[in-house]
Amino acid sequence: MVARPVVPDGPAPRRDSRRAEILAAFTRAVAERGYDGTNFGDLAVELGISKGTIVHHFGTKDRMLRELHEGYMRRRLAEVQLIWERLTRPAERLAAFVQLGVHYQVVDRTATIAFQREVVRFASAPGMETSQALRHEYRELVVGVLAEGTAGGEFRPGDDRLRTLQLFGAVHWMWTWFDPEGPRSASEVAASFVDTFLGGVLTDPGAAQVLGHPDGEVARVVAEVVRAARAPGLDCDVDHTPS
C-alpha cells in the first residue's frame, strides 16, 4: 500500500533568507524551551530585528509552528522516496525506517526535538490539517511495508497499525534520553532498535542482526540518502546540523 502524496493548500511558503533565518531561530527556541516558552520578542532580540519583521513574514506563532511541522514531514517523506528507489524488500525498507528514526536525532536534531516535543499537543489543532495529512502519509507507508512483508512471508502476521504505532512510539521520545555526544552512537542505537523491532516481526528473527548492522547495506543506503537530502534541491527549511 502506498499513500497518496499530500498536495499543500494555497501558495508555497516564501523562501527568502531572512524568512528561513527566522524559522530556524523559532525551531531552535521550541526545541530548547517549548512552544509556550517561545515568543516573538526573544526571537527579535536574538536576530537583531523588530517583532514587526517577524509578523510581516509569518503573521502568528501558530503559522510558524505549522510551517515547522510541514517542512519537517516533507523532508522525511522526500528521504523515504529516495530510499524506496534503493531498497525494495519490505524487511530492508522497515529496517531503514527504524534507522532513519534514530538518525534524525543527530542530523536534524533541533527540528526533530521541536517537532516531537509539541506534535502530540498540537496534532489536532486548527490549521494543522496538512501536517496531519503528511504524518498520516508517513505512517501509512510503514503500515504498507508491514502488510507487504506479511503477504510475502517475510513478516509474521499481526496488527500492522498497532505495530506501526509501537515503532513510532519507541522512537518518538528518543530526544529525552539520547545524547549524540554520549557513550552510545546513533549507529549502535539504530542497530539495537532494528534487532529488537524486526526480530519481533520477521519470520526469520536471525535476519534482523544483518539488517541492522552498522556496516550493512541498509545502514549504508540510509546514510547516503540522508547526505543527499541535505544537498541543495530538496525542501530544507532549517539548519540540519546537530544542536
Automatic annotation (TrEMBL):
Keywords recorded for this protein, A-Z: DNA-binding, Repressor, Transcription, Transcription regulation
Native source organism of the sequence: Blastococcus mobilis
Protein name: Transcriptional regulator, TetR family
DNA-binding region: 39-58
All residue ranges annotated as the HTH tetR-type domain in the record: 16-76
Superkingdom as given in the UniProt entry: Bacteria
Keyword Transcription set for record: yes
Family matches, as Pfam families: TetR_C_24, TetR_N
GO MF term set: DNA-binding transcription factor activity; transcription cis-regulatory region binding
